[in-house]
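Practice record 12: protein with nicotinamide-adenine-dinucleotide.
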Amino acid sequence: MGRAFAYVILGGGVAAGYAALELVRHRNGVSPGELCIISDEAVAPYERPALSKGYLLPRGAARLPAFHTCVGANDELLTEQWYKEHGIELVLATRVISADLRRKTLLTDTGETISYKTLIVATGARALKLEEFGVGGSHAANVCYLRNLEDADKMVGVMRSCHGGSAVVIGGGYIGMECAAALVAHEIKVTMVFPGKHCMDRLFTPKIAEFYEKYYTAKGVAFIKGTAVTSLEVSDGKVTEAILRDGRRLPCDMVVVGIGARANTGLFDGQLATEKRGGIKVDARMRASDAAVYAVGDVAAFPVALFGGDLRRFEHVDCARRTARRAASAILQDPAASNGDNAKEEGFDYLPFFYSRVFALSWQFYGDNAAGDAVIHFGDFSPGPAAPRFGACWVGAGGRVGGVFLEGGTREQSESAASAVRRGATVAELAGELERRGLTFAVDP
Ligand code: FDA
Ligand code: NAD
């Protein structure tokens, strides 16, 4: 059995929702019956960031349908009804198990063959498992990962049953930090374990990390750094202890694992060009090495104009939204597509943007933290203020600002930071701009 569509979006996450909206809204927009979305999740696309924030709150938690796409960008709420009204076939709880790009067909785990003229790959990323690091126990009833709604529901259930107990959080990245805050809100005592020297070591400087670690410590979170969990003691299907490399044993009522993610590219192995660090290689229009295939979101490695056309892949929601819109408008061949034609060689006009919110804190980062020759910290890093305000800027060649981090920045300060990175302003210009907007650029010795 089989069905045929002009457009198929493979994957039903953030990028899928934003691509669908753009495909419908575009002046050459798709007609009813032309578009199909296939997702192995049981619900219509939603704003995944909610899972580690509002969804985990002990009171007044966010629940669907409130956070379907595209509310995260203050746009329409695309419920299942919306897809129906626009004649979009939403094939849910269905996994694509193989793809034949030569025949332009996808085979699902229900045995259906779905064919396309144009395919948008939006398969996102998967959470790395402990077993990939030689540690067993992922399937224990009280071990939680966090990638999708099913994981979030499990975590909510486990947290409720552990009130007053203790948790080991494995990993000190985004998931680790955001979940630790949620655990504290559930009055669960947290110990975080990770191999790095400090939390969020892919982005934070030691000085930024020191602030957050002190803040978390004041909330009762303990940090064990520079080591790893080498095994989990399981009894009656539940983890009772995490055992560290040095033999230390941490008794616990639950475990949360956030040890990184990998792009879901497996279906296209040998069929599409991939990037060596993971991801499907695409051009500035998000088109892959097969002209009928586009890739967007976490799975896409695209040339970034701001970085001279360097291929980059981001695992962040803003990127998923923008690359999805970009692909959709490119597919419908709008000559006035958001990026303009002149950018097609050098890359997509994209300014990387990451953010997180934990406890009463909120940070944003714009640009690149890799290229800087030096990092300048500014503002007040003391743990005292109820509403901390500080930041850092990564300085590249010619004293130009390559990346800016802001904790507690206002909307205007964030806009200034973004604009400074985008136009390659000097540090002095950024300092003046932020000072005008009320953030002292007092550089720490
Ligand atoms: P996404 O993962 O959203 O969607 C992929 C979809 O494809 C899923 O529905 C998946 O099930 C499906 N799929 C995969 N393979 C399939 C197959 N073979 N067949 C069928 N379906 C298949 N970013 C940020 O900037 N700020 C934030 O605060 C957060 N917070 C956050 C919290 C949590 C818990 C996570 C896991 C992630 C974040 N992120 C984030 C990252 C952000 O959510 C992420 O970058 C986007 O969801 C990426 O969107 P995609 O659509 O590319 O993948
Ligand atoms: P991450 O890469 O942010 O952090 C991984 C952490 O695990 C690091 O601290 C690393 O040192 C540690 N680690 C690696 N191997 C380990 C091991 N064997 N044992 C213990 N620790 C180990 O990844 P994550 O936190 O798992 O996040 C997964 C995905 O979710 C990413 O794509 C991320 O971008 C996304 N996410 C983003 C946000 C956000 O942007 N605010 C929030 C949540 C999730």
